[in-house]
Design brief:
By secondary structure, the chain is of the alpha+beta class. The protein folds into two domains: 8-220, Tetratricopeptide repeat domain (Serine Threonine Protein Phosphatase 5, Tetratricopeptide repeat, Alpha Horseshoe), CATH 1.25.40.10; 226-509, Beta Barrel (Porin), CATH 2.40.160. It has twelve helices and 15 strands. It has a 15-stranded antiparallel β-sheet that branches. Helix 1 packs antiparallel against helix 2 (32-46), helix 5 runs antiparallel to helix 6 and helix 7 runs antiparallel to helix 8.
Amino acid sequence: MPGIKRGGIRAFFAAVLVFFIAGSSGYGADQVQEKERLDKAIALYQHQNYEEALVILMQLRDTYPESPAIAYYTGLTYKQMQDFASARPHLEAAATLKPPVNTAIIELVDLLYQMDEVDEAKKWIERAEQEGIAPAQTTFLKGLVLLKEQKDPEKAVRAFDEAVRLDNSLAQTVKYYKAFAYVQLKKLGEAKKVFKEVVLENPSGDLATYANEYMDAISRQEEATKPFRGSATASLQYDDNVVLKPLDDTIESNTSDKGDWRHVYTVQGEYNVKPNDRIGLKMGGSYYYAKEFELGFYDTMSTDISAQPAVYFENAMLAAPMHYNNVRINDKRYLDLVGIGSLNNFMVTKNDMLQASFTHNRKYFTWPPVRDDDNRDSFEYAWSAGWYRFFFKNRDGIVFCRYAMNYEDAKGNNWTYFGNRVTAGTVIPFAKIFKLNVVTDYFHQEYKKINSAYDKERHDDVLTVSSLFAIEIFKDCEVQLQYVFVDDLSSIGVYKYTRNIFSTGIQYKF
């Protein structure tokens, strides 16, 4: 947040104040030289030559430790150099030595506010109120401290209103901070309205720049927390290996044409229930349908239903996702999957998140296997840990890396395996309407039994690279261009294949 601005007029009057205080602090005719040194330090401070000013001031502090004027300017100089810890004792001395520098209390409160020393700041505010020091500025700082304390935003609003009543020149700055109080009160619409007023009153000012950023953040928060949201996507795809035809041409195949075009339609939505800040429930569903132009046997339909209860903490979320998935191929029931697990997110810094998850899936394949060893009904156990970094000023950019292990315990010996997976990706927004999403995934599958059909050990190394470029054509609607490459280097030739998928489509969010 921008700090309190102080102009040249204030510095001038402060210098005059210091002059008279210095005169009453034991400076006589025999100390004219020291007085000149103080004047030089003040001039250096006013011209922002803080390092040079500090050298003189520290010498004077050693010589005249009881001078509130010297202590005051020493504290101000350290404060301007952002050395708050060093500034604090000097400003405290200036406020307590005789005679005290009253403005030192205001500077000290501002310093303690920036140091997050809320309780100490409140003590000095109380003294400033008792002594009637700079009432408007004291009341404004009181509002800032209450806002940072996050316990009584209504009281902060009242303090801001009183500060404006006492000094109308604070009006625009007060509006800016009142908007934060409305955010704490969860009055996001009111906060956006006030931020907009700040921008309209002075579009080229620093506060307007900050206000615009916070309006964008509030809009994203409103989008993320609205009860119902969803999306619909329609795309045209070309898949050059729909049937997963092996790379080895010597292996017999029942099809000569492995590539095809298809239409793909996806609809998904979720409903969020959050009765308070601590608990919530997310319920959702999605539907996927792919219609091949020629290879109709591979038409695919997938329906997914999910629920995720969660507990929220200041920097963490603990959730227990559950879902059911049904897949139909060629309009015939192919797979039913039921899953439950845990998903835990931890914000370790403002822009870094760690994620840990565990999932247990039960898979039922309804098509009868050719042999018992090919029965794919299974219990699956999966663990993962990931790191996410959010970047760009609106945190729209993401870079992540995730490691996962899974064990699929199938009824058929040919499909029981242990897997290791590494996934890395990034989302990079360009300007406001372009976005690039690139994901690379490496999956190693080590099958536990000799494959009975080929009398050979099987292990697969599957590399998948996906890139998606999105262009927003109007709010909540974007054109998507996507390319996916898959390379399965299986130790058994019939499972070895490559695949390229090209897609163009349009997505609408609601």
